[in-house]
Write the structure tokens for this entry.
Amino acid sequence: MLPDLSERAPLLVMAVGNILRGDDGFADAVLNRLAQEELPAHVELFDAGTSAIDLMEVFNGRDKLIVVDAIRGGQAPGTLYRFSPEEVEDQALPMNSLHQVGLLETLKLGELVDCKPKQTVVVGAQPGETGLGIGLSPEVEQAVERAVELIKQEINNAKPQRDRKDAGFQGSFAS
């Protein structure tokens, strides 16, 4: 049986990462911080762990997907990035997520089988340490709050015309 997509929040903030690998836990820290905010009912937070290929069903039918991840872009640790997959898919990527191959391939596969969100934005921070260990470096820890503010802007810029059925909205995001 196919899931009822109208029951889903139209905007999904999805964290990808591994808290056991230092700064790769950036997305989890951002998601935990966002969970403390009073977010609109049209927003759902989801911790995806490190496996992207299993996520098509999670983001299918969403109006907007905001992916949070540690991104290797060659800058100083804690540098924030914001881009869409379309902006980087045709490039030899200097910017890559520690999970990018799986994530970008999953988004592309979802596009091929018409199982994708309408819009995707990636928000990431340049990691410093990603070896075994729990906790963020000071630079990446400081990037968490900046990422939360950036994601809140993304949420506010999405104008919901629907929400989950239980909240009484119908429709989709305005263009």
Q: What stands out?
A: Residues 138-157 form the longest helix (20 residues). The chain has one domain: 5-167. Residues 163-175 have pLDDT under 50 and may be disordered. Strands lie at 11-15, 43-47, 64-72, 80-83, 96-97, 119-125.
